[in-house]
Structures are given as structure tokens and as C-alpha cells.
Amino acid sequence: MLYPLIRKFFFSLDAETAHGIGMVGIDRAACLMAKPVAPCPVEVMGLKFPNPVGLAAGLDKNGDHIDGLARLGFGFIEIGTITPRPQDGNPKPRLFRIPEAQGIINRMGFNNAGVDKLLENVRAAEFPKKGGILGINIGKNATTPIEKAADDYLICLDKVYNDASYVTVNISSPNTKNLRELQKDEALDDLLSQLKARQLQLADKNGKYVPMALKIAPDLDDEQITAIADALRRHRFDAVIATNTTLSREGVEGMPNAAETGGLSGAPVFQKSTAVLKKLSTALAGELPIIGVGGIMGGEDAAEKIKAGASLVQFYSGFIYRGPDLVSEVAETLAIMLSKKNG
Predict the structure, then answer these.
(1) What pTM, to 2 d.p., does this model score?
(2) Which listed residue (165, 173, 273, 328) is catalytic?
(3) Quick check: is 328 catalytic?
(4) Which CATH number do you get for residue 56?
(5) What is the DSSP string of 102-145?
(6) What pLDDT, in 10s, does the model give residues 7-38?
């Protein structure tokens, strides 16, 4: 019952200010807020997860709060999106709540301290040293021309490879100009081809194979979903994350902040992201796992993602609205669901 009171205070502040204070609070008081999390081990991408409940990228862009977040019971944590060089992102304000719909709009623009700073933080954290599964989400700098985007992804992949449990390639943020163009046929083929070749070189050089996932948008038609599924299979990617935020405003029309530009997340994106997940699952026919993200606000939402074809789930906006209780609730729901399925 504590979190609704805390949330009331945070929601009285500007969203980005509240985010900064909240993350420091997690570092200091995670043990007080955490509830026991049901064990539910799953193996995905060749990695053994203690439970299938993950934190989506975006909440901890620079990996400043890995250990605090880990104490809340997540089965895995994804940090980033990170770029080769530090960048400020878009002008403030750039983060907006829509409480009536349990939604959030952001146009952050990959604000981050750069890949080298993130790696300092990762190496100082206990969670990865103790075998915790840490995903690192990589992107391109805003000033890098779209035709040179692959260079930025390759720089980041080279740098994070040894410190990541898996690497996510983010080509689906709506807040970096033209980024979503990389989801289109030829551009996608070229990018995945270069990344796969580099991954295999790095595996050979480092003596370990680090899986790669592609994060896609929910704003895709059936033809695009099929084309992406074909490309993922062709280039032997290890997983796909469905989905990022949406440009649609369905479900929030006329509400305060709904007209702000940026990507919409939270409850309003649930149906759209789950529909993409389902179609993607059909198109992939089990050839690679899907991580389901988008609008998970409770245990039943997470169960729907698993039923639609996901092997793991992640959330971010749900965590803002529900707090740490969401981790234990989702873990318990999925543990019961998967034990029935396997039993």
C-alpha cells in the first residue's frame, strides 16, 4: 500500500524530475519496497533466467541503478539505449504522463552519457558479477546520418560485447529522426547482415557467444511483420523484442498531454503491441524467441503476452504506475501459468 502514496507525491512533480528522484530512492530503499518473487526458471537465447520478468530499456539509460533495480526481483534487466557518443537528447519537457489512461508519452531522443560511461557503471555493479542477466540496448547518435547508422551500432556492439548477457539493437524508437527507416527491407537486411558478421567475429575473438535481439515498433503492417520475421531468420538473430512505443494516439484522444509528440507507452499500447507479437509469433513459427513488452500493467497482461507467443516479458510504464509490486505479481502469475502448462 506504500507505493500509491509515493506515486501521489511523484505525480505532483514534473515527470523527468520525478524519474531522477525515484531512481535514487530505489537505490536507497529497494529492500524495503521489494516483495518475495516466485522462482520460475526459463531458458531463452541459451541463457538461464531465474524468472521471465524483465525491466525494459529506458528506465536506466546509463546503468546507474543496476543493483537497486536488481533487488526488486527482476529476472533480467535491460539498460540503455546507449549511443557511441554522449548526447543530450531532445529539449525538455520531453516526458509526459496520461494518468487517466495509465499512459506515458516520451520524446527523450536517446539522451545518455555515452557507451564508455555505461560500461564504467556496469563494471562497478554487483548484479552482473553474481551472474545476473543484463541486456544492453544500443542505438545510433542523432548526428550520425542514417546511411552511416550501421557504424554506430557496430561501435557499440564491439564495446559492450564482453559486458552484456545479450545485446538489443534498437531501430524502433520514434524519437530519433529516420531511425525507423532501418526497419525497411534493404536497410534492415544490410544492418542485420553487418551486425551478425561482427557478432560471430567477436564470439570467435572472445571465446563466448553473446546473443543479439532486435527491438521493433508496434506501428507495422502485416507485410512488414512478415518481412522482419524473414530477415531475422535469414540472419540467424537470437531473439526479437516486440514492441517499442507507438505513434498512434488510439485510446488517449482528447486527454491532457495526448497531443504531445513522441512515443506512447503504457496501457494504451497493450492491444497494438500484443497483436504485433501474435502475428510475429505466427510468422516466426517458433524459430526464435520473442520478448513481449508494451502495456503490461498486471499479471494477466503478462500472461496474455505469453499466450500470444512471448517467452519472456518486460515492462517500464507499468512499473511507474504500479511500482515494485508489479514485479512479484507478474512473476507469480507466470509461475502458476507455466507450471500448469508444463505440468
Answers:
(1) 0.98
(2) 173
(3) no
(4) 3.20.20.70
(5) TEEEE---S-BS-HHHHHHHHHH-HHHHTT-EEEEEE---TTS-
(6) 999 999 999 999 999 999 999 999 888 899 99
